[in-house]
Design goal:
The protein is mainly β and 132 residues long. It has a domain of 81 residues: OB fold (Dihydrolipoamide Acetyltransferase, E2P) (Beta Barrel), CATH 2.40.50. The protein contains 3 helices and 9 strands. It has a 5-stranded antiparallel β-sheet. The protein has a two-stranded antiparallel sheet with strand order 5-6. It is globular and about 40 Å long.
Length: 132
């Protein structure tokens, strides 16, 4: 089992000046990811998590429906998240986190200290819209 991912914020591990690029992948590998736009429809506390996190219910439209995920994005309040459009990877499988089943990965950019800033479409899109 993989060791719990921990970030030393003081070390600024995601400083763009020091983060090296990842190995190249082919287009088919990239296209295998199912990236979708979703709308946050519920935000719940997740006190059982080892690190501060929210439980998010996100509507991914009529084909995928509403799914739940855990996200370490407590730099956002519940009110800031509720109703917000997000971008997510929806075909990475399920992961059990502190007894909760997380069904997708919400995507964000990383500040140098590891703080996640959510990716958001620059226009209103319907839930379930694929990301190109």
């Amino acid at each position: 089992m993989a060791e719990q991912h921990r970030i030393d914020a003081a070390a600024r591990p995601y400083d763009p000046a020091t983060v090296e690029g990842k190995p190249q992948v082919d287009l088919d590998t990239f296209l295998a990811l199912d990236l979708r736009v979703g709308r946050v429809v519920e935000v719940a506390p997740f006190p059982e998590a080892r690190q501060p996190a929210w439980k998010l219910a996100v509507d991914f439209g009529p084909q995928l429906g509403t799914r739940w995920s855990s996200a370490k994005i407590t730099n956002y309040t519940a009110d800031e998240l509720d109703g917000r459009l997000v971008v997510a990877a929806v075909n990475l499988g399920r992961k059990r986190i502190a007894g909760f089943v997380s069904e997708f990965l919400v995507l964000g950019g990383l500040e140098p200290d590891g703080t996640v800033r959510l990716l958001t479409p620059d226009a209103s899109l319907d839930p379930g819209a694929p990301v190109a």
